Amino acid sequence: MLKYINETVEYLQEKGFESPEIGIILGTGLGQLINEIDILVEASYNHIPYFPTATVEFHKGKLVYGNLAGKKVIVMQGRFHLYEGYTLQDVTYPVRIMEKLGIKTLLVSNAAGAINLNFKKGELMLIEDHINLQGSSPLAFNGVEHLGERFTDMSAPYDKGINSTFKTIAKNNNIELHEGVYASVVGPQLETRAEYRMLKIIGADAVGMSTVPEIIVANHLNIKVAAVSVLTDECDPDNLKPVDISEIIAMAAKAEPNMITLFKELISTL
């Protein structure tokens, strides 16, 4: 993997991806942050050596580099998921690339379902901890110790300082920002009523199909990391209705301006 990482990094550096400070991963329906960036260079995933290719129709497939709130940022416009048939090493490969390019902080967004019924769709949730239900780890491969500490500490995977700043920004802008536990499942099917009940019992406030592998690798690489979920549906097992994916995308788009405010203002403080 080291050989692949070095070749990918070399390709991107030759394209002009120079010393980004902050990495950003944009989740489902959350692509409008790109419009806030002074773009210097971009690269399609399918042109980057050893990069996976986004196969989900509402995920773009570009790595974007530019200036945002006075900082050099590198943005994944579209991410990879286990349910697309990729391995956890594939899914997290871009995090390793961004770290090699120079990032010290990673900000992650996703669309998630609200398990905690005090949370409503269209609101945001700051992730303060997570539950990995994807069945494996992105660190479970031969040679991982050459890339970082094999037995990575996860006692505080989300940076408390960044989370505190996010909460202050939300308060100052009258943004409803919950705080909770995100459970990551494989998907792509949505959960059954019994699964939603189980998730509530084990302490999840929201559920999605991404993010946790990227957080684990960020911690493996000693990158500061924070993540925000846009809550796109309410997962009430006693009143469960069929899910409309287009409605989820629309709800993500509706909540996105608040997420952009959080990210922009946070980046200006880093």
Automatic annotation (TrEMBL):
Domain of life: Bacteria
PANTHER family: METHYLTHIOADENOSINE/PURINE NUCLEOSIDE PHOSPHORYLASE, PURINE NUCLEOSIDE PHOSPHORYLASE-RELATED
Name of this protein: Purine nucleoside phosphorylase
Native organism taxonomy: Bacteria, Pseudomonadati, Bacteroidota, Flavobacteriia, Flavobacteriales
Family stated for the protein in its record: Belongs to the PNP/MTAP phosphorylase family.
Function recorded in the entry: The purine nucleoside phosphorylases catalyze the phosphorolytic breakdown of the N-glycosidic bond in the beta-(deoxy)ribonucleoside molecules, with the formation of the corresponding free purine bases and pentose-1-phosphate.
Segments forming domain Nucleoside phosphorylase: 21-267
CDD domains: PNP-EcPNPII_like (cd09009)
Species assigned in the record: Hwangdonia lutea
Keyword presence, Protein transport: no
Pathway membership, UniProt: Purine metabolism; purine nucleoside salvage
GO biological process, one term: nucleoside metabolic process
